[in-house]
What does this fold into?
Amino acid sequence: MSSGIQALDITPCTLGERCETLRKEVRSFLREELGERTALQRAESWMGVDEDFSRKLGERGWIGMVWPRSVGGGEFSALERYVVLEEMLAAGAPVQAHWVADRQSGPLLLRFAPDTLARRVLSEIARGDTYFCIGMSEPDSGSDLASIRTKAVRGDGGWIIRGSKIWTTGAQRARYMIAFVRTDVSATAVSATAVSTAAVPDGRDRHAGFSQFLIDMSSPGITVQPIRNMLGEHEFNEVFLEDVWVPEENLIGQQGDGWKQVTAELAIERSGPERYMSSTELMLEMLQAADVEDDRHAVALGRLVADYGALRQMSIGIAGMLARGDNPAVAASVVKDQGARLEKLIPELAQDLFGDKLALNSSLREVLSYTLRSSPSFTLRGGTPEILRGIIARGMGLR
Ligand SMILES: Cc1cc2nc3c(=O)[nH]c(=O)nc-3n(C[C@H](O)[C@H](O)[C@H](O)COP(=O)(O)OP(=O)(O)OC[C@H]3O[C@@H](n4cnc5c(N)ncnc54)[C@H](O)[C@@H]3O)c2cc1C
It folds into this structure.
């Protein structure tokens, strides 16, 4: 008898010789460009910003790697791109400035934007000097993205956008935002707590009536207000959009297709190795500090390394799915969910195993302090565990 449950398949994948040759090239580039990095710098993972470094990556062809050459890409495979990202993350290379544009804004434009607009902006991204921010979350809408209130109405030969976005990473340096907004203003925001399905009480689809726009961040009417994170850093912002005019050509895809597009964008956002590697440097510090005579260390760190290795294989499997043109949305949600769990477990384990020895090991102490204070964000950014598990359950036919 069929249970109706769909199997979750992440086919293992090997990286191959071309990838390993590229890995050597990336390592030697990183050594030359970054020199010896401190453990704390490496612990930053993908949070460091250096616009010169981003431009150098652009010159090497390591931004927009899988895009067509006609739009400034390098036509590398998804596996080759994986290797470059993995090396950048392991080194804690300062890649944050261009990360969002390379990871998700460019691919979104490539897939949904009109040819002319996509062509112009993609080549700018690939040069490493044009950065993007994600305009999805709002003060009352995070997990429940369908309850956003920011609206776009037609006006002056284009669109006029009014509302606000929050937790907008890198808005202070972004040239563009891709904003998810409501274009069917007859449908008012309905909270998911009021309804349990996609249909609102009067039968309308609560996922209908949204669109995405490319917004030039220098447009009149935009205010970027910094928000400091727990580390005291200015990483994200609240962005106010007060009657911001955008031309018609900046509508991405079709009016009303915003939900389909934003869910595709989120699947890309969750698919990379940054979703399990954020605490890598701390794990390495722990392995160095481990006492080989201590059984507690052997068991806990052995398990940790095995989990990390399994996640890496799954993450490479997702790159393989992308290389084959398969849709990795459900599998990527599993890696993001389990990856963020592991990223958060590592600082907890470090406290447990080495808490009484920190005074003697300044490197471990500094990296632990940084990772611990970053870790609350690991399960929030890119989707919380409850939301990811809902996607996984739906993808497996369980709900
Ligand atoms: C470092 C960082 C960077 C970010 N960058 C950006 C960015 O650049 N652009 C952007 O748009 N957003 C960004 N975000 C916002 C991020 O996408 C949201 O934090 C996330 O979607 C969760 O939304 P929320 O914070 O409003 O929490 P809420 O949605 O209020 O969730 C709070 C808790 O309730 C749970 N919950 C919510 N709904 C359900 C449900 N239906 N069933 C069960 N449990 C539920 C959640 O799992 C969570 O535990 C960033 C967040 C962080 C931490």
